[in-house]
């Protein structure tokens, strides 16, 4: 099964992220925006979680104790870079607490899954199919004003991903 480990964002943060998805860009780019219900931060992607390993994964993840911490929305960015844009994302700060949690997840699952090679603290806002005018596209995205709103992270979840025509559907398997 396709699965991932991550955490949800509170409703007020989801609303802010939804407002950042500047619909005016349709004049200069084709973007597949992430649905409001699917905003999350992914700590580890598990593309081939075997059913036989599910209980072991749950047991290993249950051993991680999350010390609650506060994060805030950071800056908007682009993967792989500002010239060749494939993904529009927003960061969370401070990154160190999230990176520590991600490292704990990697360490616990090391015997079953390779560690993440290039973990980046981000929430995906949309995937860019093409942009006719990259500079205008960037300016439209970055022109949105938002508060660097804070929220608390005190748990993480193991999700199953089902892909369909309407987009991915995430189902919580267990919360830790």
What's a quick, concise take on this entry?
The protein has 176 residues and is α+β, with helices and mostly antiparallel strands. The chain contains 4 helices and 9 strands. A hairpin with a 2-residue loop joins β8 (157-164) and β9 (167-175).
The major sheet is characterized as: 5 strands, antiparallel
Order of helices and strands: EHEEHEEHEHEEE
CATH topology, by name, is Cyclic Phosphodiesterase, Chain: A
Number of helices: 4
Overall form: globular
CATH superfamily: Cyclic phosphodiesterase
Which parts are unreliable, with pLDDT below 50 for 5 consecutive residues or more?
Answer: none
Task: Walk me through the structure.
With about 180 residues, this protein is of the alpha+beta class. The chain has one domain (about 1-175): Alpha-Beta Complex (Cyclic Phosphodiesterase, Chain: A). The chain is built from 4 helices and 9 strands. It has helices at about 10-20, 55-60, 95-110, 135-140, and strands spanning about 1-10, 30-35, 40-45, 70-80, 85-95, 125-130, 150-155, 155-165, 165-175. The chain has a 5-stranded antiparallel β-sheet with strand order 2-6-5-4-7, with helices on both faces. It has a 4-stranded antiparallel β-sheet with strand order 3-1-8-9, with helices on one face. Strand 8 (about 155-165) and strand 9 (about 165-175) form a beta hairpin. The longest helix is centred in the middle third of the chain and has 14 residues, at about 95-110. The chain is globular. The mean pLDDT is about 95.
